[in-house]
Amino acid sequence: MASAGISGSGDDDAGGKLLADRYQKGEVLGEGTYGVVFKAIDTKTGNTVAVKRIWVGKDKKEGVNFTALREIKLLKELKGPNIIELIDCFPYKENLHLVFEFMETDLEALIKDKNIILSPADTKSYLQMLLKGLSFCHKKWVIHRDMKPNNLLIGADGQLKLADFGLARMFGSPRRNFTHQVFARWYRAPELLFGSKHYGSGVDIWAAGCIFAELLTRRAFLQVKNLLNFFNRIHSIS
Questions:
Q1: How many beta carbons lie within 10 A of that of residue 174, not counting itself?
Q2: What digits encode the pLDDT tens for the residues 145-156?
Q3: Which of 1-15, 74-88, 168-182 has the lowest mean pLDDT?
Q4: Which stretches of the chain are DSSP H helices?
Q5: Catalytic residue numbers?
Q6: Do 200 and 189 touch, CB atoms closer than 8 A?
Q7: Domain count, the chain
Q8: Domain Protein kinase spans what residues (predicted)?
Q9: Tens digit of pLDDT for each residue in 164-180?
């Protein structure tokens, strides 16, 4: 699972702890700005799950961060074969916990592991699943806005699923203003780099194209230092 941020420490991170009388905590999988992701066993089903713990805060004025609320709302509506499944969510102490199906790895790890051979058939399959996931979202009028290899999770069966919907938004009519400060820099469409506040599903498709090129070359396609380098790179391949 892709990580989500920092949270409590000490006993809260101890393995073996039972959360919500159901989830037995295991190893930490990753950390980020807003929470931590750890492996757990669902004692009700026996399945392995991934739990994202998001810090809420002691001050009631802080409340639950909007990123968490959006992710919960959208994932309850987006139920598709190439979308990560949100199984459960519950509060515990000063944290909110989101329970997801467990995925073995992510696309970034596969790309970086030189011991793994990505055949043309593999690349085609991953791209197809990525585009199916995006198509499903776009038909529901949702843009992901954070497409990058480590947000594309891969299960033991090889199935690829879109994850981390914290930056996702509804789009369409009425026309809305959006921030251009989305996506990791190497996956931003040109209109975002120009500061556009009006955009749609095309920004996801641009990022998907960058990821496709990364699958082929095993390195970030637009790995540049600044805006000028970015446009020089685009011009050189056009």
A1: 4
A2: 999 999 999 999
A3: 1-15
A4: 66-77, 107-112, 120-139, 190-193, 202-217, 227-237
A5: 146
A6: no
A7: 2
A8: 23-238
A9: 998 999 887 666 767 76
Separation CA 207–CA 177 (nearest Å): 20
Final residue of a domain: which of 79, 101, 123? 101
State both tokens at 47.
């399945």
Task: Tell me how far apart the alpha carbons of residues 143 and 171 are, in angstroms, rounded to a whole number.
Answer: 7
Q: What is the pLDDT of residue 64?
A: 58
If you average pLDDT over each of 93-107, 128-142, 193-207, which comes out highest? 128-142
In angstroms, rounded to a whole number, what is the distance separating the alpha carbons of residues 210 and 219?
Answer: 10
The model carries a pTM of 0.85
- Please name the residue ranges forming H helices in 53-119: 66-77, 107-112
Q: Which residues constitute the domain of residue 143?
A: 105-237
Residues 89 and 117 occupy one common structural domain: no
Same domain, 233 and 115: yes
**Residues 82 and 124 grouped into a single domain:** no
Of 78, 101, 124, the residue at which a domain comes to its end is 101
Residues 218 and 115 in one domain: yes
Helix, strand, coil % in the chain, rounded to nearest 5: 35, 25, 45
Looking at residue 237, its pLDDT comes to 72
Identify whether residues 155 and 53 lie together within a single domain.
no
Record the tokens describing residue 191, joined without a space: 């209109």
Residue 58 known to bind ligand:
yes
> Is the Cβ–Cβ distance between 57 and 35 less than 8 Å?
no
Unique residue bearing structure tokens 């585009």: 131
pLDDT (tens digit per residue) in 46-77:
999 999 998 875 555 555 577 788 889 999 99
